[in-house]
Amino acid sequence: MSKNIAPLVCIGVPFSDHMGTISSAWADARADITLPLGASMMRLNVMGQKVDDARNEIGKAAVDANCDWLLFVGSDNIVPPNIFMQLASHDVDIVNGVYWTKSYPKTPYLWRGVQRGPYMDWKIGEFFQIDMAGMDATLIKVDVLRKMEYPWWDTNWTWDEGDAPSHLATEDFYFYTKAMKAGYKIWCDSTIQVGHQDRKTGVVYGLTSDMPQARTEDRERWKGEVEAAEAGEPEDPDRERRCADIGGGNFSEHFDGKIVVFDQSEISNADFRCDVRKLPEPDESYDEIRAMHVLEHFRSYEAPGLLAEWLRILRPGGQFTFAVPNFEWAIQRLCEHNVPDFCKDFSGEVPLEQVWHAWSIVYGGLQPEHQKNPFMAHGNGYTPRVLKNLMNQIEGVSDYEIIEAKDGLELRLVGTKEFTPQPQVLLEWWNEAVEVGTTTMSLNGQVQPPDPKEPEDHVMDGQVVVPDVSKSISGGEIQTAGGDEKEDVVEESAAE
After folding, report:
1. Cα 23 from Cα 7, distance rounded (Å)
2. What's the CATH number for 241-326+382-417?
3. Which DSSP letter does residue 49 get?
4. Torsion sign (Cα): 326, 327, 328, 330
5. Of the candidates 139, 442, 127, 391, which has an alpha carbon nearest to the alpha carbon of residue 262?
6. Is the pLDDT confidence value at 103 over 50?
């Protein structure tokens, strides 16, 4: 998510009619959209205008209000509550959820290429680049609009010079093409599945279990394994073992079972294209996990969260292997290569091949274009001590070792997961607090009476408590806590 602590989010809805007709399901869905703690929201509905004019008006309002994000929601789209939180977590300029045509067979409003038909080759949970999409489940950084020339949306366009404008031309294709020309990429998070409602019939169209993108077979297998474990049944000896290779690219080391590769790169031929910081898999679903030369591509503050997320999908008792370049080896070689000649008698010349390896360990890819690519540039360096300090922050693991490999060029962190950490359930504490009597409300919402063991014996029920100021002097008289009774007093001298 953006590093802005309290983003101002504009939720814009262009209505085709003048009444803003919606269903109760749509109203509930928009009201349930969750924002980060402390974030503020601006809702803007534009009714009765052409869709391109309506979107431009919403965009100008978001810019003028100094919003950080603009979320477009269609007036017939039933969005999930986490649509903003999930899409914003990727911190990209333009990202879409998925919604489907209101017809059979259903197709997603996603496209790659020009006039190639809807893009269907994806699985739920993947995060991937597209060229165009519908714009009724779209999150845009408002800075994109600030940097692009107005108008941002228009229906007056053709694909090729000399073509006549079509009444089917849509404002979203205009926006996406203009944005890509300006240097922005378009993304899709297929985790966000949006219902597309026919308001005449009430039917909601969306992803169903019989569709190949739904991964129904995988979900049924996971459900069966969980139910068997909860019932205390022994593990099936013929169950296929599974290894998650995170960021595996085109090469994965041998594993006796099925290897599933997770990688955001399109050229890696991964089983799942995704942000490896958020794996689209359930807890404890893999027998082994590995991430070979992935961790160093992220900043140090991201490392604990990364390991926690990767270990989340590993079964207790499963083995993990994380490999990183040996930063200590690299620094030693670079120091030896650059010491004065009179000091080199203790080590001799460092081979240029090792010098090149050392610099690549420090920076990642050494070409300028490599440094612009987050898949190649390095964000952190690791030594055995740094890895040990990192593991001290990880729950559920205590048995691990750090091994030097490849003649010292590589460090491997190898260990076994003991358990999956679980968040604290506050309701358990609440129930205990109710039993102890330290809450003001019981579980049924009734106010608890004060503890009868600790009454204030000088106060009667319904009586206002007046402080007992027994030596308050006012006009030569003392006002006692008892009420109107007064006593004559002798004024004390200033010396006393």
Report:
1. 28
2. 3.40.50.150
3. S
4. positive
5. 127
6. yes
* String of DSSP letters for 456-485: -TT--TTPPP----TT-EETTEE--TTSS-
State the pLDDT at residue 441.
64
Q: How far is CA 349 from CA 134, 353, 355, 357, 408, in A?
A: 60, 11, 10, 15, 18
Q: How far is 231 from 364, CA to CA, in rounded Å?
A: 48
CATH number listed for the domain at residues 8-206: 3.90.550.40
Instruction: Give the Cα separation of 139 and 355 in Å (integer).
Output: 45
359: its two tokens: 């610099």
With the C-alpha atoms ordered 436, 438, 442, 443, is the resulting torsion angle positive or negative? negative
Question: Is the preceding peptide bond at 36 cis, omega within 30 degrees of 0?
Answer: no
Backbone angles phi, psi at 166, to 5 degrees: -110, 145
In this structure, is the dihedral angle defined by the CA atoms of residues 238, 244, 250 and 251, taken in order, positive or negative?
Answer: negative
pLDDT (average), residues 411-417? 96
The answer, yes or no, to whether the previous bond of 151 is cis (omega within 30 of 0) is yes
User: Is the C-alpha dihedral spanning 396, 215, 251, 254 positive or negative?
Assistant: positive
Q: Name the pTM for this structure.
A: 0.77
Residues of the chain within CATH 3.90.550.40 domain(s) are 8-206
Do 145 and 70 touch, CB atoms closer than 8 A?
yes
CA distances (Å), origin 414, targets 234, 251, 260, 480: 27, 19, 19, 76
Element (H, E) at 436: helix 426-436
* Cβ partners under 8 Å of residue 171, min gap 6: 51, 52, 55, 135, 153, 154, 155
End-to-end CA distance of the chain: 69
pLDDT per residue over 195-249, tens digit each? 999 988 999 999 999 999 998 888 788 788 878 877 888 888 778 899 999 997 6
For helices 303-312 and 384-391, give the axis angle rounded to 10 degrees: 60
Give the type of residue at 99: Y
Kindly report, as residue ranges, where domains of CATH 3.40.50.150 are found in the chain: 241-326+382-417
CA–CA gap between residue 333 and residue 349 (Å, rounded): 10
CA angle at residue 281 from 97 to 185, to 5 degrees? 35
Residues 162-205 have pLDDT tens digits of: 787 776 779 999 999 999 999 999 999 999 999 999 988 999 99
Sign (positive or negative) of CA dihedral 289, 292, 298, 299:
positive
- Kindly list the distances between the CA atom of residue 142 and the CA atoms of 39, 159, 179, in Å, as whole numbers in the listed order: 16, 27, 12
Only one residue has tokens 């992935």, namely: 294
